[in-house]
Write a structure and sequence with these properties.
Elements lengths: L22 H9 L3 H17 L3 H28 L19 H8 L2 H4 L3 E5 L6 H14 L4 E5 H12 L4 H8 L4 E7 L6 H14 L4 E6 L12 H13 L1 E5 L5 H7 L30 H8 L6 H10 L1
Parallel strand pairs: 1-4, 1-5, 2-3, 3-4
Helix pairs in contact: 2-3, 3-6, 7-9, 9-10, 12-13
């Protein structure tokens, strides 16, 4: 067996590393696909011997490590599959900065509307926290064991064109709807191509009363006919709003407000400058014949000022 397979966590200073598992037991745990038990078993077994645990306690500890490890891995997989744009969560959310009433925010965070397969539409001006809110809700859904899929209208258009060639659009939409919550972000910022409009309709139609859709838009859904053909817009909005919660945001852009207040970036720091003049008051030129001296000599002008400045910069 390779040394990497026997590697365990680095012990603390002064604490001996627990003995590795026997090769046959290590192989059996690999065969049964119990990676977290395999990783923690040496330490658990050593602790059990030292503290004289009952066999049932050893079993409980090992199975607990496996369950916890699988939950962490599943969470990481759900988060990566969702395709969130930035990773924002409610830890950075300021309820007071949002124009959405606090009781409504709390009700949305319970995610009861997702379990009831209802929709959410957040509309309002740019910079008022629409995408932030939807991503934080999506992150919370993932942490509660739900599956989330994140799209833009352009993504839906690409999906439709990719699968239209072999007539698998319906199956592609069905795969999207394996998620419990599908988010479509930033409608209304750009003109909507016909493929994107059709993709949105197909998604809303297939999810109707089966899955939850959360949508952010600069326009109220009643104005979607300004972005897409009226027939598609009417059919989409009809199915979207039938079981939907509509939250309208107002106010100035949070991003612009923070930028004008100087809170959009971290202050710039300048490194300390090296002294340009030696203690004798003379510029310390390199000895004749060195590479810097030859480089300087090749760039010397009539006044010598340019070569002097270049040599100082090279130091």
């Amino acid at each position: 067996m390779s040394a990497a397979a026997k590697t365990t966590a680095v012990p603390a200073l002064g604490v001996p590393a627990p003995p590795p598992l026997p090769d046959d037991l290590e192989a059996l745990l690999r065969r049964l696909r119990l990676p977290h038990i395999r990783r923690h078993a040496p330490e658990v077994v050593a602790t059990a011997k030292a503290q004289r645990w009952e066999p049932v306690e050893v079993l409980r500890a090992l199975l607990g490590e496996e369950a916890a490890g699988r939950e962490r891995s599943a969470l990481a997989t759900r988060r990566a599959t969702a395709g969130f744009p930035t990773g924002k969560t409610f830890e950075a959310w300021d309820p007071q900065a949002s124009s959405i009433p606090a009781p409504t925010q709390q009700a949305l965070r319970t995610l009861e509307w997702v379990h009831r397969r209802e929709n959410l539409v957040v509309c309002g001006p740019s910079g008022t926290g629409k995408t932030f809110l939807l991503e934080a809700l999506g992150q919370q859904a993932v942490e509660q064991g739900l599956k989330v899929a994140w799209f833009t209208l352009e993504d839906l258009g690409i999906l439709l064109r990719r699968h239209r060639a072999d007539d698998t659009v319906t199956r592609a939409i069905a795969r999207v709807l394996r998620a419990d919550l599908v988010v479509v972000d930033d409608i209304g910022l750009l003109p909507v191509a016909h493929d994107a409009a059709e993709g949105l309709y197909r998604l809303v139609d297939a999810a109707y009363e089966k899955r939850s859709i959360a949508l952010s838009s600069n326009l109220h859904p009643a104005s979607f006919d300004e972005l897409m053909p009226k027939t598609l817009a009417t059919a989409t909005v009809d199915r979207l709003l039938h079981h939907a919660h509509i939250c309208q945001t107002t106010g100035d852009s949070v991003r612009l407000t923070q930028a004008l207040a100087g809170r959009g970036v971290n202050p710039l720091t300048c490194p300390p400058l090296r002294p340009r003049v030696a203690s004798t008051g003379q510029i310390p030129w390199p000895p004749p014949g060195t590479s810097r001296d030859r480089h300087r000599a090749g760039l010397t002008t009539a006044s010598g000022q340019i070569s002097m400045a270049l040599d100082i910069c090279l130091r």
